[in-house]
Amino acid sequence: MIESITAAERLDSRGRPTVQVAVTTSHGIFRALVPSGASTGKHEALELRDGDTSRYGGMGTTRAVANVEKVIGPALLESGLDPKTQLKDIDKFMTRLDGTADKSRFGANAILGISMACARAGAAAKNVPLYEFLRQEARIEGPYILPVPFLNVLNGGVHSGNTMAFQELMIAPTAASSFREGLRLAAEVYHALKAIIAERFGALATGLGDEGGFAPPITSLEHGLDLLTAAVEKSGHTGRIKFACDPASSEFHDKNSGMYDLSFKDDSINDVRTSKEMQQLYKDIIGKYPLVLLEDPFAEDDWPSWTEFNHECKIELVGDDLLCTNVERIKVAAEERACNAVLLKLNQIGTVSEAIAAANCAFKLGWGVFVSHRSGETTDDFIADLVVGLGTGHIKSGAPARGERVSKYNRLLDIEADLEMGGERVIYAGPNFSKGPQIRIM
């Protein structure tokens, strides 16, 4: 049973305040740190900020902290709900107590912190690792699946200061035989990329973006993918690494005209494209490079473009801003045939149980589920356990650099080692990363 719930303001990876929650039970103290996004979808659960510009530029989280300690926490204690067996009930209780569709009364950052901490408390009460607790909550069975890491190694968009419109270029070691080998291959490509950038643009160009990727003065998607190709060749891993891209296109889409402004970060040029031209750009890229995944290639409400492209696209098409880890939006997207995968972000929906429900909804549709960090991350490694618990087959947590990114990868290394030492059957998702639970029978 829960004995106390406290909260405090802590910092995320961008030096902005976030919420830390501590849940105390007879088994110990269980903490959780909540992440924050930079490019956020308008359909996400609300992150509550103070708005007091005299403190942290208005980004403080003391209101969310107070909601945990003065409202949600006391109500949960009085409810008598037990994290060991009632995580879903705890999450429902908090959502109903909030009473809004987007958790704007208390803040998703307050509610999620409690949900994550309660999941850890529940795992301890059951004397199982967090990934096993989450697996049981999701009713997942069969061998454990270790994910392919999709590492964001080149940053653009709102995550960097260069002029490339597209937000993330990722590498994915799909041809590895294990997670640890995959991470090694990716790290070697990352270091080869750093050397190439230093040689071509100078040492100052090897500065890092929010997610640990490099942000050299590149201007186009093709330019970035050419750099990745050179890095893969330099590292000696040609044929073993695939690419992925997150344009985060809602950031440069004009809702009134329906156009996409690829020059939104560069006033010296004018590169504005129609949806049809964007579709052709992606088709050209897929034909030229080993691209296996596109995330948010169109704006969050540009449904016709999503549907048309998904009909022709033969790679994983991931909805992030389009879906916001929301079961109802996933169902709409399925009816529209708009995409074939969902990006799973805990703070987009605001509770662990709702994120699990979104994943299971996607699995039933035969979709992929892509677990994700946020640009404003913390050293909390919860999503590493989540991706193994759900067996989604792929995760993105940034580059193999910066502590808040590496913490997830190191946790996955530990999980893989622990499972192997325990004699468990472990499957590395590899080229089947998008198949989710089906990986177990392939």
Automatic annotation (TrEMBL):
Residues 2-134 form the Enolase N-terminal domain. Pathway: Carbohydrate degradation; glycolysis; pyruvate from D-glyceraldehyde 3-phosphate: step 4/5. Its cofactor is Mg(2+). Substrate binds at H159, E168, E295, D320, S372, H373, R374, S375, K396. GO terms for molecular function: magnesium ion binding; phosphopyruvate hydratase activity. Mg(2+) is required for catalysis and for stabilizing the dimer. GO terms for cellular component: phosphopyruvate hydratase complex. InterPro entries: Enolase, Enolase-like_C_sf, Enolase-like_N, Enolase_C, Enolase_CS, Enolase_N. It catalyses: (2R)-2-phosphoglycerate = phosphoenolpyruvate + H2O. Pfam families: Enolase_C (PF00113), Enolase_N (PF03952). GO terms for biological process: glycolytic process. Mg(2+) binds at D246, E295, D320. The active site is at E211, K345. NCBIfam families: eno. Belongs to the enolase family. HAMAP family: Enolase (MF_00318). This is Enolase. It comes from Pochonia chlamydosporia 170.
